[in-house]
Amino acid sequence: MTRTTEAAEVAAFLGARRDAATLVLSTYDSLERVAEGAAAAGASLGLAVFDEAHHMAGRGSKFAFGLDDRRLPARRRLFLTGTPRTFAGAGADGSVRSMDDVFNFGPVVYRLSYAEAVSQAIIVPLDLLVYNVSEAYARVCAQAAEVEVAVRDERIGRENAELVVAMHAAMRERNLSKAFSFHATVADARAFESDARRLLPLLGAGEEPPTVVAVWGAMGAKRLQAALERAARAERSIVSNPRVLGTGVDVPEVELVVMASPRQSHVDVLQMAGRATRLAAGKRRGYVLCPARSTMVDGEQVLEEGAFATALSVLRVFIELDEQLQQRLADGLRDVGRTGRRLDVGEIVGALVQAVGVELGLLEEQLGTALLRLGDPWEVWYGRLEAYVAEHGDCSVPAGHVTADGYRLGAWVGMQRQKRQGK
Asked: Scanning 92, 294, 300, 332, which has its CA 20 to 30 A from the CA of 45?
């Protein structure tokens, strides 16, 4: 197999194999060289397959090159992604590309849901760990004063120290051996590596601490691969990175993914969580750990502002992936509208979300608020209509009807009729 970034070599390769089946592998960055080489050889592509095709959606032109048949002629195009990106009202001028645009991306010919992939043993199921890292750190420091001394004397970052303690506990409690932690920047990933290496030997009661390495894009492919191989050889390992391992890396042994940074894009969260779903020998589940932090005020646990932000981003991903979870949420929202009761969080998420060091009442309150926001309000209104039908025997809701709890059901029903009639 020849490797090149020269259009002339691509042209020579295609020109010499006009009558044979030919495969060209390219990065998105090198598509222009492929196009130049094909044009020089008078060749066109029979089938262009674009992996991780969600990169082609959105704004900008870097990844859009392959969509333009004038620039890269191809008789057929096939787009593959586990994280389709769609944009409501995408620009008709092509400035914003959405994957539900049939003109650019064609129709969906195959879709595999998360539940189907799990049932067919293509991936393992995921659990969400909402981990109170500050509580875990305080508990460890109360039992081992040397940990707090080391954090102070060696100037280990407090947030990193809390996260290291929580990761170590989560891996030990669940007998996990491989973890990825995702950080906002290269500096954050490298700082975490340094702090973890100094702190982990104090946590294991004489056991061999996990190997910790940091990787980032600019370190080069060879160094990155060597670091990953070192982590793979270790009995237990943690790899910190600034999202560079979100795509294009196949390390199926990873059981735990840690969202160290609270600000991640939706597609990033999907990709990162997916690292823990890959099949590996002996692997039964994957885990996504989202740190939360709290303080005690007058003897009560008070979560810091935004403590659940990352966990709720991951929960949104879980809902989008799992059609069964979507249906349970829809049923739960209808029940809220029909009965006026609070959303039954346990009935919807079950054991999917596990809290460590977070009071159950706080967890349910946060999750309930989030699920109401993530779900479709239409389901709640439909539940109110079901309650009306149960009481009155029909759907003929007077235009001015207001429910006992103050909702203008008559106006909502009228709006639905107008929408159905296309008004």
From this structure: 92
